[in-house]
Fold:
Amino acid sequence: MDASGQLKPSGEGSAAFEYTPRGVAGSAPDREVLTGATVAGDAAAQAQNHDKLKGWTQGLRRANAAATRGLSLKQMKQKKSWAPLAAFQAGSNPSVEAALEGEGFRALQAESVLDYDAGVFRLEQAVLEMISAAEPRARETGLSGLHEAFDPQWQRSKSFKPHRKKMNGPLYNSEHGASLRREFTKFICNFIAPHVREHTRCTRIYFQSTPSLRIQPPSNFRIGYPHTDSMYFHQRGQINFWVPLTKVYDTNTLWLESAPGRQDYHPLELDIGQCARFYGNQCTHFTLANDTQDTRVSLDLRVVPESCFDPDPPHSRGRDG
Ligand SMILES: [Fe+2]
Structure:
């Protein structure tokens, strides 16, 4: 998380929150990279994939042991082992620990699908306008056809990385990117923050003020590895919200387990106007090679209720993460 914001209610009894930019030390951005693993859509391959995932998650547990020995993320990468989970969180602030065990935060940890008004929170349009400024053909193809807009000769075996950079760049330094960030902040203030307050009664939340924009074309490659966000040294009080801006289904969506360690991996099937809440800090989540005809576009963000926010979480600094 390279920029964060703080929210507080704008008035007594009001559902809306006001946004106050504020630098927050702590979490690092996700570092998900393109890898070569592929998964076919048939049942046998899915079963095989499930076994593979089991292997990976067992690997994560083994890596936890490395974490407790105090290895840095860089060292763990070199050793091809991964870590954090609970071991890295030990020694947190006692009041934060109590809030993490509280009923409100526990309720937020449960996976849930939330409906929002896509006519009010025009995230899809804002992203399309931003990308269309970089590639005008996107206006005709829409978000699910971005692969054709950027490369009419698109093939699943190609890397989308150069196009992805072109699409993500404007998020940080263009007028259209600023417009998207404003729309996003409105969504946080008027939808996400009131939702979090309903559960935790918190009067402030911390959130990722610039969302992560993910774009995945039809491809033979998955993006990233199965992981929990704690592997990237994110603090334990974070709740994930995943906001697809195209219809998501089958291999063209996010897969996750419903509770930490449960390994009941399943796809999120959502339409525009729906977002998923989940506890990505401890629940393993991942994507598959997109075996459909459509590009997937999504925004994701993480939120920390103030009571759960640790301003100086263990192992958050001086790490490569
Ligand atoms: Fe993640």
User: Anything to note?
Assistant: The pocket of fe (ii) ion is lined by residues 30, 227, 229, 280, 285 (CB under 6 Å). The chain has eleven helices and eleven strands. The chain has a mean pLDDT of 75.
